[in-house]
Amino acid sequence: MPTPSATVTASTDEDRDALFARFIPVRLEDILTGWGPVPAVVRSSNQSGPWDVPGSSRTVHLKDGSTAREAVTDCRTPAYFAYTVKDFTNPVKHLAAEAHGQWWFDARPGGGTDVRWTYAFVPRNAAAAAILQPIVAHAWRRFMRVGLETLLAQAR
């Protein structure tokens, strides 16, 4: 069964260590502003620990009133960050059991950073995968692109 996923990439002149240090504590509502049918993040709550420690989790609240639970699964400062999202309360709950996000921060020779963000939904069944695939390929990818560009635009 295919795994509906999207990847976005960008480059910045910002130093990798500085970018990663700014990325870890970023408030989701400051970068995930929504796109089309994908609602913005309005806040997070109930964070259980530092956001660079695997096992830490939080509840993410979306503009449409829904929530999801996000948990850190891996963090290798300053190069890699991974997380899982589950317990969706919006219609995604009927299509995906969970989702996995991964961020890579690669130092460029001569300075700067190449950033890659991949997000993959774990569909509940083949029919759900078929429904999710075009949504992820178009709307979700654009949502991610806006989030990544917003993060990089906030460089100090």
Q: What do you see in this structure?
A:
The protein has helices spanning 16-23, 28-31, 126-153, and strands at residues 5-12, 41-45, 57-62, 67-76, 80-86, 96-107, 113-123. It is an alpha+beta fold. 24% of the residues are buried. The protein contains three helices and seven strands, in the order βααββββββα. The chain is globular. Strand 4 and strand 5 (80-86) form a beta hairpin. A seven-stranded antiparallel β-sheet has the order 1-7-6-5-4-3-2.
Show unreliable segments: none
Q: Globular, elongated, flat, extended or rod-shaped: what is the shape?
A: globular
Euclidean distance between termini CA atoms = 43 Å
Give the fraction of residues assigned to helices: 25-40%
Number of DSSP strand runs: 7
Q: Determine the strand fraction and express it as a percent band.
A: 35-45%
What Rg do the Cα atoms give? Answer: 15 Å
Oligomer: single chain
